[in-house]
Amino acid sequence: MTTALKFRNITASPEDAVETWPFEGVLAAVERGTLPDWRRLARAIQADPWGQVAQQVLEAVQLSRPYGTTELLEGVVNRARELAANAERAEVATEVRNLVSASGLSQQDFATRLGTSRSRLSTYMSGKVVPSAALMVRMRRVAS
After folding, report:
1. Which residue, 39, 43, 49, 70, has most beta carbons within 10 Å?
2. Rounded mean pLDDT, 6-34
3. 3 state SS of 136
4. For residues 127 and 96, what is the distance between their CA atoms, to the nearest angstrom?
5. Is the residue at 8 inside a domain?
């Protein structure tokens, strides 16, 4: 991909993968980049919402506060993190449902063995509430 973006005093090239750019490259893209450059940053952020590129973008916008770009890129990070958290929540809910099913117990009996109520177990199964790590371990133990 060709870009009008130029880096100064760093060995990376704007054509390199954004994941390989040092902080100064990300900062240059935030401050002087254009929509194609920001799209590349957004793709990297969507692939790893808590990764290095996301962190560098947040640091860059906090440092330089470029007009308009700050809200755009902070929004990209926040939305990517929200989508990832929702996907993780759904994944946990699926695992809880699978554990209940694998146990061969009724939901009431499974909940009792966990030390919780059936209604609370239902919130875990629907993804409305995410169980603690300790409770997930207990669920796995009850299911086996």
Report:
1. 49
2. 94
3. helix
4. 9
5. no
Strand (E) or helix (H) holding 18 = none
Do 102 and 57 fall into the same domain? Answer: no
The DSSP 8-state label assigned to residue 14 in this structure reads T
CA triplet 137, 97, 116: central angle to 5 degrees? Answer: 55
Residue 46 lies in a domain: yes
Q: What is the pTM of this model?
A: 0.83
pLDDT score of 16:
94
Identify residue 81 by its one-letter amino acid code: R
pLDDT digits (tens, 9 = 90+) for 84-110: 999 999 999 999 999 999 999 999 999
For every residue of 60-119, DSSP letters joined together read: HHHHH--TTHHHHHHHHHHHHHHHHHHHHHHHHHHHHHHHHHHHT--HHHHHHHHTS-HH
pLDDT at 4: 82
